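Next comes a single protein record:
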Amino acid sequence: MIADTQEKKIPIDIRVTDTGSSPNSVLLVGSNGDLFTEGLAHNGKVLLFSASEARPDLIRRYWYHVDAFGHSRRYLNWNPWLYEGESLADLCYAIPEVNTEDCQRAGIVELEAKYKVEDIDFVRRALARNAAVTSEEVLQRDEYFDTPDRTLDSQDFVVRIRKSRSATEIGMKGARFRTPTGEYSRVELEFTAASEQQVRDQIRMQGLERTWFFEKRRTEFRWSDTDASVFLDEIPEIGYFVEIEGSLDEIHMIEQHLTAGLHMKINRNYKELFVESRNARGEGPSQIEGAQFSNANFK
């Protein structure tokens, strides 16, 4: 299964197992949105749903059952070869719901909101009163990778290397799912790289190339009496932003404390905001390679 995935250059797989009964079956979610099942009963891999028919709502239902290593966190009691004739939607929605907050605590589903800062002094004072610094300001450089035909970007998937003076991390993110109040959730897996060069070599072997980079200055806070994190980011040319990660109730509560210093809730990522800013100045996409501070130093 792993060899087949590598041969087909699918850079991200999420594997969800069934009850473990024999014959065992596995659900594969390919990075291009294809859904497969594989097991002894199938004599190999069987396509359930192609990317052209992608249903993010169905894929999302599986995410919550997967741990940071791609293993099932609970038995799903799902044996797809027994359900011939039923639609994939029937199979998906027969799986029990899991509590979203439990999944956030497990570290795989990220729920966050992002805001443009209007009054940085107010925001700094509010954070000083209500939150503790968990990481002093650090300069980070994020590099994003995709296939030559931008398959990952078209599916809203992310493969990222994040570099700071202290560490290099590899991150993988699934598609974003919006809440009615403007927050979004997505699957995120993040690992510290023992060797930056080995990570880059593996990414290149998967057929991915660097498509974008940006730098930011980030300070991390933990809001008092909660598990919520608040990030204060400075992005070259476009200013300061606040990101809040936590439960929906925590995000709304923290937003109330900071709202006088915030301009608006943002539904786009930093790349989209930076490119929009450059486009407004008359620059085309081919002229925009990334965002950086002129005096950045990662040595």
The two ends are 40 Å apart (CA to CA).
